[in-house]
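Entry 14. Structure prediction run on the chain below.
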Amino acid sequence: MVKVLVTDKIDEEGIRRLREVAEVDVAVGLKPPELIERVKDYEVLVVRSATKVTREVIEAGKKLRIIGRAGAGVDNIDVEAAKARGIKVLNTPEAPTEAVAELVMGLMLSWARRLPQADLSMKQGKWLKAELMGTELRGKTLGIIGTGKIGQRVGFLALAFGMKIVAQDCVRYPEFAARTGCEYTDLDTVLRQADYLTIHLPLTAETRHLIGKRELSLMKPTAVLINTSRGEIVDETALVEALTSGKIAGACLDVFSREPPVDSPLLKLPNVILTPHIGASTHEAQKEAAILISEKIKEAIA
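Output returned:
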């Protein structure tokens, strides 16, 4: 029977389904040397984001045929090393769609209605009704960079709030544009028009620091940047400069170039809302990811 090693916590339903076709061992929290030693006995490795599947791990896994990630990106897996060995890499980009899209809307609403400040001031015994004047999402322009599953879902939710949508993507989706009124255009135009800019791209050599000093300089001084994809897509040094100089009004960040962002100057800025990479952290999304990756692995085994 095929042997499967699961090294990050995934929903039990995913484990149950894998056990229908394989012998499954769960070993969460292995240190790199422990993983390198352990992986040699398994044909399948299942991870989320904590486990780093490096070239060394892949080379040690002499029997490995499948690496599955219960989540969207695969930047914690050395895909090139896996490809060189003929190892199939599977992931579940569809699983966190609703969770991430809803977080984006939550961040926009939190910024527009100043919810973090309202909550904190109330708990400090203050009543700052007049000082916490907000704005509405209705009538604002949402710029979407990347209109895959998550980007499109954000667009549909934003449409319900009466927002105008502009987008940039190397692939254009006519049905999405027709249903939302989204205008596809170039990156610079999106940057200039957006009141809120949300990023939904994988981290690649091409997307690393896609949003840097030049791009931030094109945005409105009232604009807000939202990043729930990968931290390194935004040049954080340039972002801090833009936030402190008033080139843009603010940022809402769920991801960072270093996680956790220890000693990052972003932690001290008043015009940012920060969350600890919780985009896919809903019970529904995690269960969906576990089920999807187990079914994809079962199909690959078959």
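The chain is about 35% helix and 15% strand.
Filed with the rest of this week's runs.
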